[in-house]
Structure prediction request, 577 residues.
Amino acid sequence: MRRPGRWLGMLLLATVSCLQAQGVENLLPVTEAYRLSADTSTPGVVKLHWVIAPDYYLYRGQMRFTGTGPVTLGTVTTATGHRYRDAYLGEVETYHVSTDARVEYSASAEGGELVVRYQGCHEVDPKICYPPHSQRFKLPPAKAAAMIVPAAGAAEGRSASHDPEGAAGDGSAVKGDGFWLVMLLAVAGGMLLNLMPCVLPILFLKLGGLIRHGGDRRRAIRSSLGYGLGVMTSFVALGVLVIELRHAGAAVGWGLQLQQPWLLGALACVMFAMGLAMSGIIELGSGLARLGDGLARRPGVAGDFFSGVLAVVVASPCTAPMMGTALAYALVAPLAQALAVFVALGFGLALPYLLLSLWPGLSRRLPRPGRWMDTLKQLLAFPMYLSVIWLVWVLARQRGADAVALALLAMTAVAFGLWVWRRGREWPRWRLLWLLPLGAAVVMPLVAVGRLAPPAVDQALASDEVAYDAARLQKLVAAGTPVFVDMTADWCITCKANEHVVLAAPAFRELMRQSGAVYMKGDWTDVDPAISRFLEHYHSPGVPLYVVFGPRRKDGVVLPTVLNMSVLAAAFKQARG
Prediction:
């Protein structure tokens, strides 16, 4: 036990490696594990057929059928499955190898869609169940084509559904070890999120705070606990917001907060104020970590909580390795399990700081506090200013030059208000009422930013790129043309890093030329329901998402969030066959 930190690091590294191997390499994509096709050659009837991969099975009790648009469903008939008593779910009925279903419907001349929802599991190691998956099929108004393929899938809304007769067991929860695997993936993904570029400004901030506390272990622990509470509370609040919006039918995903122009402007103002405080231009309490001292009786706790909130808001659009699997499960899982996953993500993000404060051997390795801390604090202000530039740039991409002018106006009002606050310490209290119109001068431009319409000019694409279009993608895939789909966003720093390091490299362009592939790019900087449906179809909580289609993999090969040329070459080879 001389070096507990080293043993803990080795244990965490082994856990991460094990989880990555089990969670990615040994499981098929849901659309490959359960291949579903629909036959509408009989008017008024849809015949569904699942081909189930070896070592996988489907729950009969989890099949749901919903008609959208002017569609009314009639009798639903499913095959009899294998009945047994599950240790966790009670009496269930499952299918292996293949199964069929028959759905009767009536539709007007406009036709409509049938939403088919199902859930299955992997019955050998790693024993884990997939989240419920939905696929949409277009229904003809009268005569039908022989076979149709699913459109880009979308999560099923809260509309009336038809359950197959004799269904048993709900199958809504991941079994035993599977749920804990998701929880460990969430903790590991949250820890790795500390290494993503999005969170670096807050990372510098917290490290500076821990060094400032020096040998005062109690203050360090209190600071880390306040930060961790802010992180976990924010993860849960943001997760619940996304889940409720999706259940209400909104096409949203992880990172939706940076699709809101007014919030981008507000974050720019907050980080600008933090930068001014760290530079020593203005004073807020006794420093940045004391930003919220006036709101709490114990100094520093509110400021630490606030820094945890800010870390989640800025860092959550990034998807760290292994974090995507946990998020994809949480967005469709029962609420209690989803909340547990979000708490685990927050715990992982806050864990390094908790360990530094709780473990004396680790904290003693930090530099001792001294006069150099003022220089460090001023130096760390510059990542804050760079974050402001990034946020304003994203805002310009979303709403144009007018939005930038309004954001700069709001930041000017913030700076003037802070100057008035500092100068007014000796003023009578009633004179501080001047802060009310200054607050309005900050809020009104941000409200105006939120009301601006997107610029009419489309995103500029390279000569060898085409904008994402679901219909065009389906035609290209049906014709056997290889397609590389890149779902990105201007606020996604991981996306931009991949673009500059890998996708802009001559080696990637040569790979595309040799493969005869089409480069299709989707921009999710602003809200786009079509892109959201594509993300949902591949159980991706957000961007980046990279999928390679080809003659041998018309369902697509999903790539990891961090790209390299070897991964891309292997995916193209697998898709081409």
